[in-house]
């Protein structure tokens, strides 16, 4: 499943899939962040919000849409299909939101 991916790429992929990642919704759950909400939006910063909805990453998402050739993004599509992982890593890197991953 993780053939051809670097260790940080495997790690971020697993964490995006499980939701156990450095976004506020998870950090709040494990009592590291005082709020579950996004820094930009009055809504929990979940993986779904980060990848698909947050307006703060509109530019990066547009690039993702162009690269994938479709605006019909779903978590399932982004995280399950092997061929799309590199575009997802590029999105994560471009947002600068999860800087501890060397993607
Ligand atoms: Zn947001």
From TrEMBL:
<protein>
    <recommendedName>
        <fullName>Reverse transcriptase zinc-binding domain-containing protein</fullName>
    </recommendedName>
</protein>
């Amino acid at each position: 499943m993780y053939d051809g991916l670097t260790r940080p790429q495997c790690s971020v992929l697993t964490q995006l899939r499980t939701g156990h990642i450095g976004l506020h919704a998870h950090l709040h759950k494990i009592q590291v962040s005082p709020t579950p909400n996004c820094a930009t939006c009055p809504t929990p910063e979940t993986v779904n919000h980060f990848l698909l909805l947050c307006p703060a990453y509109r530019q990066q998402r547009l690039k993702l849409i162009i690269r994938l050739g479709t605006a019909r993004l779903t978590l399932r599509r982004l995280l399950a299909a092997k061929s799309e992982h590199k575009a997802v890593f590029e999105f994560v890197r471009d947002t600068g939101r999860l800087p501890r991953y060397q993607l």
